[in-house]
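sry for the spam today, last one i promise. C-alpha cells for design, 486 residues
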C-alpha cells in the first residue's frame, strides 16, 4: 500500500498514528468517495496488535501528560486549534470527498467548530474547580484527576467535528487517547494526528487506529488498561461495546440513535415551521438529532404539507462540492440500500410518498416525505438515518406529547409554537436530551448533551465532559494533628 494518498490535492497518510509515529498494517481496506464511488485509497487495517500497541502508547504517555500543568495543556490545545484554522480548506475538501457532506458547510461551519472545540475545552479547563467547603471544622477539597487512557470511537456522518468533541475534553482533562474513526470516513482523523503533532502534543498522548469495527474495536474496548470509553453510533454497536467493557467495569459515555419528533402547533409561524422541517434533510438526513417525525396539528396540516412539498421539491441535490447543492449523497451503498428498504417496506404497508420515495443515480436518495403511516410502524419507530421524514397529525397537546414520546428513543425534539406557555408546558413533558423551541441545531458547548432511553448513556459538554473524563476526588482534612516545623 502507499503510505500517502492525495485527496483533492491534499496529502493524507493512510497509516495509523501510534506513539508519535506512523505504523503500517499487513492488511488494508478500501476507502471510496460517496460522491462518485471512486477509490480514494487503501487504508491501514488495524486489529488486535495495533490496538494493543496504541493502548500501550497511551498508557506510557499518561503519567507525563497527566502531570502537565493545566496552563500548558491549554496552550497545546490552542495550538491544535491554530493548526486546524490554518488548514480549514484542506480539512473541508478532504472530509467532503470522504463522507459527502456539503463543502460549503464544512468551510463555514464544521471546521471552524472543530477549532472551537479545542479552544472551548482549553479555556474551560482553566476555570474548572469547586471552592473548598467545611464539614464540622474539616476542610473538603474536590480535585479533578485525569482518569487515564481513553478509547474514543466516532461515526462517519460528521467525522472530525464529532471526534474533536471527544478528543478535546479528554486531552484537556489530562487523559491520553486512542481514537478509532469510522472506516467509511477515516481521512480527517489522520490529518488531525499530523496537526496535533505539529502543535507539540507529546508522543502517545493521541493515537489513531483505523480499521473495521469489531476487528480492532473489541480489542480496544475490552482492554484492562482503558479507563474511559466514549462512543457515538448505533444502539446495536453500543450494546456490543457495553458487553465488552463490562469485564473491566470501564465507564461509558454513549451517544446513540434518535427518532426525534418535530411538533408543529396551529399557532406556529408556519413559514418558520416549514423551514425547520425542511432543514431536517441536512447532510442527506444523516444526522442523529434530526426531527424525522413531523407531528402537525390538524387545523394547519394541509397548509403545512402543501408548503413543505413546494419547498422540499426545490432542493438541489448533487455534487456536495458545488455551492448550489443543498443535499449530497448517502455515505455508502450499504446505507443507501438500508434507506431504500425502509421506504419500500413503508409504501408496501400503506404509506404514501408525497415527496421523493426513490433512489437516484449513484449514491443519492431523493428527499422523501411519507404520509399515511401508523404510529407502531417500522418507519415511525426505527431510525432510518437518511433523507426520509414521516408526517402525522394530532388533535391537541396531549396527543402531540403522547405521539412524540412513543418510541424507544429520546435524543432530541423540536417544538414550533407561538405560545410561550405552551412551549414551556410541552417541553417539560417531552423525553429528550435536548429540546429546541422555534429553532433547530443550536448547540452551546457549555450545555449538557446526550440522550434518554436508548438514545444514550451519560452527558457531555462543559463541566459534564470533565465529570466523565476525570476521576473526582474529595480530600477531607482535619483541623488538628499538625506539627510545627518552624
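last one done:
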Amino acid at each position: 500500500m502507499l503510505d500517502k494518498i492525495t485527496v483533492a490535492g491534499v496529502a493524507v497518510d493512510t497509516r495509523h498514528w501510534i506513539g508519535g509515529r506512523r505504523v503500517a498494517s499487513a492488511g488494508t481496506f478500501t476507502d471510496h468517495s460517496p460522491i462518485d464511488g471512486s477509490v480514494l485509497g487503501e487504508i491501514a487495517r488495524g486489529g488486535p496488535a495495533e490496538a494493543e500497541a496504541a493502548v500501550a502508547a497511551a498508557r506510557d504517555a499518561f503519567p507525563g501528560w497527566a502531570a502537565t500543568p493545566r496552563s500548558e495543556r491549554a496552550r497545546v490545545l490552542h495550538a491544535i486549534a491554530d493548526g486546524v484554522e490554518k488548514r480549514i480548506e484542506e480539512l473541508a475538501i478532504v472530509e467532503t470527498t470522504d463522507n459527502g457532506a456539503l463543502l460549503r458547510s464544512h468551510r463555514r461551519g464544521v471546521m471552524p467548530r472543530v477549532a472551537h472545540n479545542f479552544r472551548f475545552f482549553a479555556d474551560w479547563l482553566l476555570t474548572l474547580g469547586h471552592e473548598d467547603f467545611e464539614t464540622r471544622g474539616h476542610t473538603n477539597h474536590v480535585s479533578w484527576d485525569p482518569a487515564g487512557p481513553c478509547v474514543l470511537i466516532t461515526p462517519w456522518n460528521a467525522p472530525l467535528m464529532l471526534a474533536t468533541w471527544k478528543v478535546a475534553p479528554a486531552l484537556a482533562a489530562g487523559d491520553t487517547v486512542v481514537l478509532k474513526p469510522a472506516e467509511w470516513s477515516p481521512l480527517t482523523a489522520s490529518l488531525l494526528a499530523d496537526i496535533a503533532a505539529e502543535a507539540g502534543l507529546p508522543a502517545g498522548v493521541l493515537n489513531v487506529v483505523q480499521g473495521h469495527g469489531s476487528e480492532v474495536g473489541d480489542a480496544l474496548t475490552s482492554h484492562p488498561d482503558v479507563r474511559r470509553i466514549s462512543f457515538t453510533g448505533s444502539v446495536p454497536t453500543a450494546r456490543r461495546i457495553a458487553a465488552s467493557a463490562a469485564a473491566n467495569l470501564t465507564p461509558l459515555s454513549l451517544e446513540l440513535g434518535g427518532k426525534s419528533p418535530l411538533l408543529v402547533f396551529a399557532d406556529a409561524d408556519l413559514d418558520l415551521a416549514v423551514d425547520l422541517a425542511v432543514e431536517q434533510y441536512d447532510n442527506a438526513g444523516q444526522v442523529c438529532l434530526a426531527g424525522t417525525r413531523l407531528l402537525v396539528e390538524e387545523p394547519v396540516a394541509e397548509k403545512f404539507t402543501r408548503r413543505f412539498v413546494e419547498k422540499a421539491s426545490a432542493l438541489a441535490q448533487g455534487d456536495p462540492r458545488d455551492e448550489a447543492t443543498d443535499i449530497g449523497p448517502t455515505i455508502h451503498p450499504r446505507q443507501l440500500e438500508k434507506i431504500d428498504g425502509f421506504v419500500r417496506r413503508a409504501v408496501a404497508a400503506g404509506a404514501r410518498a408525497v415527496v421523493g420515495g426513490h433512489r437516484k443515480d449513484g449514491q443519492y436518495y431523493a428527499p422523501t416525505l411519507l404520509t399515511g403511516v401508523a404510529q407502531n410502524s417500522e418507519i415511525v419507530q426505527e431510525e432510518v438515518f437518511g433523507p426520509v421524514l414521516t408526517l402525522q397529525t394530532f388533535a391537541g397537546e396531549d396527543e402531540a406529547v403522547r405521539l412524540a414520546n412513543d418510541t424507544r428513543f429520546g435524543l432530541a425534539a423540536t417544538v414550533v409554537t407561538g405560545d410561550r406557555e405552551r412551549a414551556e408546558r410541552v417541553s417539560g413533558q417531552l423525553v429528550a436530551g435536548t429540546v429546541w423551541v422555534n429553532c433547530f441545531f443550536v448547540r452551546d458547548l457549555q450545555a449538557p448533551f446526550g440522550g434518554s432511553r436508548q438514545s444514550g448513556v451519560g452527558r457531555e459538554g462543559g463541566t459534564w465532559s470533565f465529570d466523565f473524563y476525570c476521576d473526582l476526588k474529595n480530600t477531607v482534612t482535619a483541623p488538628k494533628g499538625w506539627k510545627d516545623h518552624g
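The chain has a mean pLDDT of 96. ok im logging off now
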